[in-house]
Amino acid sequence: MIPDDDPSRSLTVADPDDPGTTYVSLVGNTYAMLITGEQTAGRYCLIDMRVPDGGGPPPHRHDFEEMFTVLEGEIEFTFRGERHTVRAGSTINIPANAPHHFRNASGAPARMLCMCTPAGQDEYFLRIGDVVADRDAPPPRLSQGEVMERRRLAAELAPAYRSEFL
């Protein structure tokens, strides 16, 4: 049986250009939090990722599904040690618990949507990254000490967000 409609939940329209969008600078990338776990009752989150040439996270894994749709450019995904180049228009799904990472090795900027289910990655990024003014804002200039502190915090909080760095 399908439960009754929950009128306390509202329609969400995700627009990366909306002035209310939160942008986070993380590992040289800029992530727009389009739909948060708070808006979906924890079911999923949707993040617009702008990845400059050379950008991408370190190898990691987590116990939730992660789907990427490349909108512009191309991204190299390493999944269980095997590299796959994914170009604009393609979508890939990373199964829960599988080791992976991505890198923009194309020589040009790339952009993709990332959906995580259940949500939580959005909160994690907000806790370990730096909020910036908009999608074109440069990443903050961090001292070596600040970079080390960000890495320490990311590692410390990873288990609470069901993630592990490899």
Automatic annotation (TrEMBL):
Domain Cupin type-2 residues, every copy: 49-115
SUPFAM superfamilies given in the database record: RmlC-like cupins (SSF51182)
Coiled-coil intervals, chain numbering: none
Transmembrane segments: none
Superkingdom in the source lineage: Bacteria
InterPro entries the UniProt entry points to: Cupin_2, QDO-like, RmlC-like_jellyroll, RmlC_Cupin_sf
Protein name: Cupin domain-containing protein
Source organism per UniProt: Streptomyces pseudovenezuelae
